[in-house]
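stage 2 :: seqdesign
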């Protein structure tokens, strides 16, 4: 978007419900990274992206989350002494189930047919690390499905373990990598260090 058309665009966003969109456009303009948000039209109105003309391609995405907890809670889980059963396995199933229902949870997500979804929950010395992977062949990506799987798995772990510790923290929810589609591949820079 050129600066002149950006100014016209900003001037058209005068209604109160346009203000969050306007702030984002101005922020991007100040950074010199004027990009458009696909879920907004040129008046700032929310819309579902039309993917009718996009070709179906293979898409994959991986996401991550972490549930931080006290060492005593980790020790109880190692002995499988949770009042509700094995939280890691139940969290896996919850994440897989949630990924299949992403479009019902995130209003403007397209319903897509997943060809694969996996969730892994690993007990570490200071909590539980969650990794999810989603795959589909279609006109839109599966990043949200992977992120929903990881976040719901993390929330399930909290629910399963809250009798042991209420102060657990759900942290580090992010996209690890994705492939396929017009925007190509993305990989988050790796962090060093073990848990």
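stage 2 :: out
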């Amino acid at each position: 978007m050129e600066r002149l058309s950006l100014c016209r665009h900003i001037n058209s966003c005068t209604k109160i419900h346009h203000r969050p969109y306007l702030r984002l456009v101005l922020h991007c303009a100040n950074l010199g990274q004027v990009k458009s948000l696909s879920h907004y039209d040129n008046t700032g109105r929310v819309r579902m992206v039309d993917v009718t003309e996009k070709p179906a391609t293979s898409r994959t995405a991986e996401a991550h989350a972490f549930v931080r907890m006290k060492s005593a809670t980790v020790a109880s889980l190692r002995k499988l002494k949770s009042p509700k059963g094995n939280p890691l396995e139940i969290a896996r199933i919850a994440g897989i189930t949630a990924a299949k229902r992403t479009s019902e949870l995130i209003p403007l997500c397209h319903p897509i047919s997943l060809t694969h979804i996996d969730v892994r929950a690993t007990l570490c010395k200071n909590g539980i690390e969650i990794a999810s992977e989603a795959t589909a062949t279609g006109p839109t990506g599966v990043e949200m499905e992977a992120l929903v799987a990881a976040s719901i798995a993390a929330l399930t772990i909290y629910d399963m373990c809250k009798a042991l510790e209420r102060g657990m923290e759900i942290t580090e929810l992010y996209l690890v990598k994705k492939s396929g589609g017009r925007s190509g591949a993305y990989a988050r820079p790796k962090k060093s260090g073990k848990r």
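stage 3 :: structure notes
- Residues 61 and 142 are 6 Å apart (CA to CA).
- Helices lie at 3-12, 19-30, 71-78, 87-99, 102-105, 143-161.
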